[in-house]
Amino acid sequence: MEILDILIIGAGPIGINCALEAKKNNLNYLIIEKGTIVNSLYNYPLYMKFFSTADKLEIAEIPFISAAPKPGRQEALEYYQGIARQKNININLYEKVLNVSKNGNIFEIETSKSKYAAKNVIISTGFYDIPNLMNIPGENLEKVKHYYSEPYPYAKQKIVVIGSSNSSVDAALETYRKGAEVTMIIRNSEISQSVKYWVKPDIENRIAEGSIAAHFNSELIEIKEYSVVFKDENGNINEIENDFVLAMTGYLPDFNFLKNSGVDLQGECLNPFYNSETMETNVPNLYLAGVVCGGKDTHVWFIENSRIHAEIIIRNIFSK
């Protein structure tokens, strides 16, 4: 079996950047991706706009040209997938990594299609695969959606949106403007401060005028076929009619995969251990890159500030 210099798990923007850095340094590499190229971006809402400007999303000093101040999902897909094509990056798509183990100094990687061997492994899997469940009765009903793509299926429906993050606010505003009757149930006392600055006044004004109902300091406690039950800020139990629940409660890295790969997980946030100067985990020659580094706190790392991980990792590999 050929022994790769590097096997990269995940073909998101940071995984692609790692591949470009490896290629630039004449290392033998392969990306394994369970979906399509930049699979997480592909599954974002269709009309999503990034918080960052295009220059902050660039990798490998390849210009990202956008006509709008903030690029959208489609532009990002064109940019990153275009790089993969133009640079002829070595990627196996629709192949899931099942297990990473070590035999001496060589990693053995088992996937849904094959087996590989590599001197180094980079895990760059993001956090968009596993919804952060509410663990309440009825969450498994078909009407509950943990992923939101577009507003059209929800026209003239009674929608409950859980949360007050960017994804929650976008879903609430878009479905409202397509004719849905929208109610937001929010654990906190206000709309999240992290919401995009050009969107936050919009949602706050819609709530203030009563176009969108919002229950702050409240918690959903049960989902029924035609209604939902929640506890309001006064501790009262309320039941309202409902057709769909958009549970925008966030997503988590695959902690079981990290743990099974030997990575130590620390604290309540299950932060994976790594050396910030090298991105190497407690397993020698096993590295982390991108948002997977943040554990449950998925707002620490994003494309803009984790682009540097690729260069750090490759530099460390060459130093050994």
Describe the 3D structure.
With 320 residues, the protein is α/β, with parallel strands linked by helices. The protein is 23% helix and 25% strand. The chain has helices at residues 13-24, 39-42, 73-86, 166-177, 200-209, 255-260, 303-306, 309-319; strands spanning 3-9, 29-32, 91-92, 97-103, 106-111, 115-123, 130-131, 144-145, 158-162, 181-185, 213-215, 219-223, 227-231, 237-241, 244-247, 251-252, 265-266, 271-272, 286-288. Strands 1, 2, 3, 4, 5, 6 and 19 form a seven-stranded mixed β-sheet that branches. Strands 8-15-9-10-11 form a five-stranded parallel β-sheet, with helices on one face. A hairpin with a 3-residue loop joins strand 5 (106-111) and strand 6.
Head-to-tail CA distance between termini: 23 Å
- Percent strand equals 25-35%
Please state the oligomeric state of the protein chains shown. Answer: single chain
Rounded average pLDDT: 95
Given the C-alpha coordinates, what overall shape results? globular
Helix-strand string: EHEHHEEEEEEEHEHEEEEEEHEEEHH
- Percent helix: 10-25%
The biggest beta sheet is recorded as: 7 strands, mixed
Class from helix and strand fractions = alpha/beta
Tally of helical runs: 8
Overall number of strands: 19
Please tell me how large the radius of gyration is: 21 Å
Low-confidence stretches at least 5 residues in length (pLDDT < 50)? none
Brief summary of the model shown:
This protein has eight helices and 19 strands.
